Amino acid sequence: MHITQLNRECLLHLFSFLDKNSRKNLAKTCHKLLEVFEDPLLWPLLNFHSPVELKKDNFLLGPALKYLSICWYSERVKVCNIEDWMKNSFQRDFCNRHENTVRDFLLQVCNRCPNLLSLTLSGCGHVTDDSILLLLRSCPKLRTLKLENCARITDGTLRAVTLHGGALHTLHVDFCRNITQAGLQTLREQCPSVMLRADRSASMIPDSQPDKKLMPERASRKLVQL
Predict the structure, then answer these.
(1) 85, 67 in Cβ contact below 8 A?
(2) pLDDT above 80 for 46
């Protein structure tokens, strides 16, 4: 029996065991397998491990997506978590490209994935409060939000949770250095049902450009934390 003789249910099951690249390669072989690749039911879960992966055409965003994880830790990406005033022109250009990629991808998630249940963002230095606010508004079923080492996340995200995180059950804001103790306390008071974890966040050095005479010392302390 040829693979194309299998029914849609069997083909979807077969595709489910393959990674994104293998699914795309198989879909190139014939029109029937391309239709399976483009079936939203094949894509309830997506994991990404580098910014480059967000720009590929080997996955599909759609209403069936329930679980999304974007985590990267490479040495090149670490520069995105450094404060802007500490970056040289090459690093700024590099980070601008990452910022545009992440922003555009999350906007697509907001527009295409209203049934998202769980989102994990780790090491994503360009995720902003505005992106999280839009996600909470666009994905009203979101129950789990895990943010780790996201340098641009502030108390604004905590306020967005209180306003639009009605379905949220679990919130992690670990190693997010611009989260404050006051913001965490307010969230606990206003959303007592949310299981909140904020490992190290409120005790880290927040972003703010220091006086010139303090720059070397502050920069060295920041780099040690990163």
Answers:
(1) no
(2) yes
